[in-house]
Amino acid sequence: MSTKMQKIEAVSRANPFKGATDLPDPPRPSEKCYDPSMSPYDQLFAVQQQLNILSYNHLPTTFYNLEKQRSLQSILLTSKEILTDALPIRCLEATFVGLFLTQEMRHLSRIPIGFRSMADGAHYRHIVLAVQVKGRPQYGAVGLSRKTCLMYKELKFTSLYDLIMDYKKGYESVGHTLVDAKIGLPVSHDSHYRLPPCWRYIAIKWDSPTTEDNPTPDDSSSLHLETILFNFSKLLPSISDQFYKGVNTLENLNRAQRLCFFDLDCCGADAAYENRRRLSLLAKCQSPLGAEARKAVNEKDLPSSKKRSGHSTNKKTPNSRGRVAADSSAPNKTTVSDVVAAPDGEFEDEGNAAVSGASLPSTPRNCSVGTLSFSSPSIQELP
Q1: What's the whole-model pTM score?
Q2: What angle (nearest 5°) sits at the alpha carbon of residue 96, between those of residues 90 and 381?
Q3: Which of 3.30.1340, 3.90.1720, 3.40.50, 3.10.620 would CATH assign to domain 1-11+27-199?
Q4: Is 58 assigned a catalytic role?
Q5: Measured between alpha carbons, how far is 298 from 274 in angstroms, rounded to an integer?
Q6: Which of 1, 78, 176, 336 could form a disulfide with 171 if both were Cys (CB 3.0 to 4.6 A apart)?
Q7: What is the per-residue pLDDT across 200-210, written as a single tens digit (0 to 9) for each?
């Protein structure tokens, strides 16, 4: 070992606080961080302060269960554990804690937004919890990141589009190109809700221009991004109401009709088709969960159905849980649990494939989300 490295090792082992007796206690987050009489602006700032107290985890591993496709009740229990331990966290845990701390703020809609960016040929992931004051054009967000421009946003944005474009500017300021964003549905305020939140209901892209040879109707740039997000925000209350009323009544529907309620991460080979359908309807200011929209879907149009058509009807294929299921020609006996069957892929925070412990589902090496297709080894941690 060189002399320089020996000095570094000696300094790293030294405890600058050894023998000190008057050190203040480190700050700890509080579950009761706001007063109900406070304004939504101050309440959101108080929630962000608790996330700042926890601080960002720069270690190569995380301390908590990062599985997203589990019940909201379970996620809130993990959030409570995080607040009790007061250990550093990353952006996904921060989103969990943000849900927990805003659970009683029924005047707020909480919408998860995931981002994927690119820099130097590598992809990076991030997630924040956007919030909207119900009935008002006021949007903001809470979260954690290594970069301050990619976390907390005040309740000052008049549209979801403006909020997302502000994050896009933040990415550009740190040398990243924002590739896409995945927007979920408002998370339930029922702390005992037994299904997962819908993390990714639509996926929008910026990086694929439309040409004659490649019309890419699923690319949101061809459908005008601002219009889609404006209509999505306008229809969000009704879409959310239709989702929570219909997600428990899927038993007698065919796969195409059930897909209308699926998180894009649970759509498998049909994710691109379903995302394209949702974006096309939103461009016309129509709800993808409306009765007419669901009646219009055709199972024969699904990519998975086309693939199965070339095989024997007696052949069995694995379903999203990895179990063997009968071909689509068999009667549909799907339960609500099938909506949340597929795992979220790798349990990442800002692109870092952090934990996939023995107790968690196995991770597919290639993942297709909405209009997107990427290989997980290329995803890196945000610098």
Answers
A1: 0.75
A2: 25
A3: 3.10.620
A4: no
A5: 11
A6: 176
A7: 999 999 854 43
